[in-house]
Design a protein that fits this description.
Blueprint: H1 6-27, H2 31-56, H3 64-81, H4 86-91, H5 93-105, H6 113-133, H7 135-138, E1 144-145, E2 151-152, E3 155-156, H8 160-182, H9 185-195, H10 197-202, H11 207-233, E4 235-236, H12 243-256, H13 261-277, H14 285-299, H15 304-326
Antiparallel strand pairs: 1-4, 2-3
Length: 327
Amino acid sequence: MLTMKKKTIVQLIAWAVALAAVLIVFKSSNVYIQSIMNMLMYNIVLVLGLNFITGLTGQMNLGTVGMLALGAYTYGILTVTAGWNPWVALFAMFAVGFAVGRLLGYPSLRLKGFYLSLTTIGFGEIIRLLATNIEPLTGGTMGFGNIKRLSTWFYTSQAKSDYFYLLLAFAVAAIVIANRIVNSKWGRAFKAVRDNPEAAEASGINISRLKIQAFTLAAIYAAFGGAMYAGYNTYLNPSGFTLEYSQNYVAMLMIGGIGTVPGCIIGATIVTILPEMLRKFADYYWIMFCTVCIVMAILVPDGLWPLIKKLFARLSNSAQKRKAKVA
């Protein structure tokens, strides 16, 4: 059981997370808990997208919140101002993500490290300032409301608790797609660019094209996450798209395990739920959360998922030794 393939393990984790989330929401009538679980769903999608850039190709991206805001506002404007069907607006996120990915991907060919981080931070701030100042289109500081939710002939999402199951379906689909990409030739090429770009280029890998593709994938995931966010909250305000949120997504990636799909799920779950659990400490909760993150960065620099895999391996070896002794 413990020696199963990585692909099967990832699928089991995805289904386990989905089942646990369903049970928590189904059993709980607490609106607060339901809202946290909804938040977790679109956070998983966003950190899976960030993983393509930072986790697989090693490009630092602190503009995730800008991609999120652009997707959310575009979805809101298309469904409210333009009167589009929510499903049509959702699939338009492909175009939004593709355009944003290309826009940020090309600068990444010339910029690295600190300079690339500043570029992505600038992108996020530009989107936030545009949302604040283009009041006729975005509502400005007063916010943008009455955003339409997705619905089907058999499912109408009127209550936030009902909308969770749709967000859950999107999150599971995003996990499965990301897992296929990470374990494909495409994913291995991304990792080669991260680990040794000179050797990758000497092997015939087009580094420039792969970096742009990584940004494009991340932007598409973030745009879909933005549509999920807007559809769930039905209200947007520029104050909700600050640099702090981009830092949170990097923390999710770091805590869970950079470059891994299970790590994204674990990291998103911890960073989403842990601060809420620490709120009972009032003004000290954020200090405690940051302390936990620092301690984990020191003690588990590779993230929790590699540690869990090592534990699986040890348990598997112990089980095999016991069988050998019995035999």
